Amino acid sequence: MNAVTLVARREIAVRGRTKGFRIGLLVTAVLVVVLAALPKLIGGGSDYDVGLAGRQADRLQAALAGQAAQATDVTVKVTRYADEAAARKGVEDGDVEAAVVDNTTVISKTVVGDSLAVLLDTAHRVVATEANLTAAGLDPAKVGQAQQVAPMKTVSLNGTGEDATIRRVLAMVIVVILFMLLIQVCTWVAMGVVEEKGSRIVEILLTAVRPWQLLAGKVIGLGVLGLSQVIVIAAVGLVAAQVTGAVPELPEGTYGVVAGAVVWFLLGYVFYAAMFAAIASLVSRQEELSGVLTPATMLLMASYLVGFVAAGAPDSTLTQVLSIVPPFSAMVMPVRSAVLDVPLWETGLAAGLMIVAAVAVLLLGGRIYQRAVLRTGARVKWREALSSAS
Amino acid sequence: MLEVDGLRKRYGDTVALDGVSLTVRPGEMFGFVGANGAGKTTTMRIVMGVLSSDGGQVRWNGAQAGHEIRRRFGYMPEERGLYAKMRVGEQIEYFGKLGGMPPQAAKRSADELIERLSLTERRGDDVDSLSLGNQQRVQLAVALIHDPELLVLDEPFSGLDPIAVDALAGVLTERKAAGVPVVFSSHQLDLVERLCDSVGIIKAGRMIAGGTVEELRARESRKRLRIVVTGAAPGWAGGLPGEIVSRTERTPEDGARYDEVILMPADDQEALRVAAQAGHVQHFAWQEPSLAEIFREVVA
Predict the structure, then answer these.
(1) CA A144, CA A135: separation in Å to the nearest integer?
(2) How deeply is B89 buried, as exposed, middle or buried, from its count of CB atoms within 10 A (0-12, 13-18, 19+)?
(3) Of the candidates B101, B33, B16, which has an alpha carbon nearest to the alpha carbon of residue B298?
(4) What is the DSSP string of A274-309?
(5) At A257, phi and psi to the nearest 5?
(6) DSSP at A160
(7) What count of other Cβ atoms lies within 10 Å of the Cβ of residue A19?
(8) Coil, strand or helix: which one is B260?
């Protein structure tokens, strides 16, 4: 079997078996299920029990039924009471959430929930307006017809259409996942490099495999592990969402956007993983790792923040520029593509530049790694790692 | 056959190796001896290719040793290294596969070694749960798993108890008998003397002596005679030709006077004559220097 594959398989087997990985995956999966089911859980369903009494009760009942029919997932159960006292008792006993008396007063235990309040208020207005119109000698039906106006059509020049909000949320989700995944897996790479260097096992490994094979196997193995983790989480999330019916319909092209994000993840991953590995090879102890990694972590954090800003302002010039400049493009471009249609040449240019940057970091990082990984003890200085032969 | 030819290595201004050469033939065990910092580890690292040299060559059976050749070597570095969070069996197999073995063969070979090194019960345990002695055994298994054509072991005996030393010596002797050249460094010179067919002494990056232990003894310039005489009169030793290194005398209650003299003789025949005249010669022989004595002498 080829050396890179062997190394990658070891990484997957050993890292995938650790408690940390398994518990992390389980917790995240549970979290995703809860999040997906949350709207259903706290929403408690939009079933309202309403009491009606006194004047205009018939017409209110009709108006409420009409509204419930228009909205999805809303049912209104009406209980009729003989008078105000009976309605009060009904509220008191919890038979109904709220009761309307004479189309003038709402009775409730504490406060009426927002959505129910809107429902009642609208019904009240409809009925009251009709009454006023009739009183003024107008035909409510004719006025109603006159008020039927077709809504304005929205035309977005960037082609985002009506799904702007969902697309924006999708963009945010992509930024968060890309960032979490990159920082987690790159940290694994860095820790693995220090583990091998610190324990000196690297000396035995390098008699059997070449430095680039060791590095490539580690990066590929951990990358596969990280990616499969996201796939598991995404699958769990989608299934849970489907079952609970929590997500609205996804806008057209979502799958394309997600696939694009995966490609961008891979490019960003190669870039950052090579960087993290090279930096990690300078030190021999895990305790020194976070200190020496700070600049790289900062760069990743900066990309993340920029990506977040871009999700909020996808059509700004800054976003446009940063979506092309590596390594920011790895996070900004998928975000921008999620929200609006990016010209093909810009995507191509960004991808081309990112590939160049990733290859450059890979070559440089590989060289630093090769020179520094056998030098235990004190931290290897950058200048030494870059210039001297081992 | 391993041939190391004129290796040179500098670390900044420090010269670590200054033309180190050595040869180890098939079925030969070579003991690499020298003070700390003399260049043993550097030489071994260069032989294994984990360190590059500034000059000189490492040849295996006449060919310059490259990566593919070195994959077939077995190596135990000075600072032991294993994956702490990896199971014993898995780890040994992994190195077998890295050394180019097909998975099935690696598994078989690992099973044998685990059995041989009495690690059967620890096969499924993480390495960091093992005692140091057992970790050392795993380390050895890692070096031996792919049935290497050459063994390079840096201080393999350090930190081992006497039983583990014997076990390791047994394994190495067995490999040697199978025709594998074995190179190991050690500060335990009695072990080197007992096990090795040839010895190389390195000092400050230069090989200052080499050959079989007998050859080294023969080359030893300051030869010593051990003379034991009983019944001699006090002061007899003053007549001995040469330099007296040490002298012990005893007079038992009921016996004759006993004298032991270690002498670096100017003339051995004259010394024998003087001793025979003085009393009854019990012992008259060249003293064989131990490797430790040779080492001290050569390195001094």
Answers:
(1) 15
(2) buried
(3) B33
(4) HHHHHHHTT-SSHHHHHHHHHHHHHHHHHHHHHHHH
(5) -65, -45
(6) -
(7) 7
(8) strand
Residue pair A79/A96 in contact by the 8 Å Cβ criterion:
yes
Give the model's confidence band at A389: pLDDT under 50 very low, under 70 low, under 90 confident, else very high.
very low
Which of B44, B45, B50 to mutate: most A Cβ within 10 Å?
B50
Position B174 confidence tier, pLDDT thresholds 50, 70, 90: very high
Backbone angles phi, psi at B164, to 5 degrees: -65, -35
Q: Is the CB of B86 inside 8 Å of chain A's CB atoms?
A: yes
Which tokens in the block code for residue B2?
């391993």
Whether residue B43 contacts residue B95, with contact meaning beta carbons closer than 8 Å, is answered with no
Chain A contact set for B76 (CB, 8 A):
204
Short-list A300, A31, A309, A23, CA closest to A178: A300
**Letter for the amino acid at B61?**
N
Considering only the beta carbons, identify the residue of A3, A201, A210 that sits closest to B81.
A201
* Residue carrying structure tokens 């919890």: A94
Structure tokens at B181: 């050249």
Contact B152, B73 (CB under 8 A): yes
**DSSP H stretches of helix in chain A:** 3-17, 19-43, 57-70, 84-92, 114-135, 140-147, 164-198, 201-208, 211-244, 254-280, 286-312, 317-322, 329-339, 344-372, 382-387
Q: Which of B50, B52, B94 sits opposite A207 (nearest CB)?
A: B50
Complex ipTM > 0.85: no
Average pLDDT over residues A9-21: 88
- The closest alpha carbon to B291, from B206, B222, B194, B223, belongs to B194
Chain-centroid distance, C-alpha A366: 33
**Cα B83 to Cα B127: distance, rounded to the nearest angstrom:** 7
Residue B237, helix vs strand vs coil:
helix
Give, rounded to a whole angstrom, the gap between the first and last alpha carbons of chain A.
29
Distance from C-alpha of A188 to C-alpha of A218, rounded to nearest angstrom? 9
Residue B263, token pair as written in the block: 């002498």
| pLDDT digits 0-9 by tens, B26-51 | 999 999 999 888 999 999 999 998 88
Q: For residues A172 and A326, what is the distance between their CA atoms, to the nearest angstrom?
A: 20
Question: What phi and psi values does residue A125 have, to the nearest 5 degrees?
Answer: -60, -45
The string of pLDDT tens digits covering residues A37-90 is 766 665 555 778 889 988 888 888 888 888 777 766 678 888 889 888 888 888
Count of C-beta atoms within a 10 Å radius of residue B131:
9
Distance of CA B204 to the CA centre of its chain: 18
Consecutive H or E run containing B37 = none
- The DSSP H or E segment spanning B229 is strand B224-230
Report whether B270 contacts B237 (CB < 8 A): no
Residue A201 neighbours by CB under 8 Å, 6+ apart: A195, B81, B82, B83
In terms of CA atoms, which chain A residue is nearest residue B82?
A201
pLDDT for A176-186, tens place per residue? Answer: 888 888 999 99
Predicted pLDDT at A43: 55
Is A387 within 8 Å of chain B by CB?
Answer: no
What residue of B is the nearest CA neighbor of A199? B81
State how far the Cα of A322 lies from the Cα of A304, in Å rounded to an integer: 12
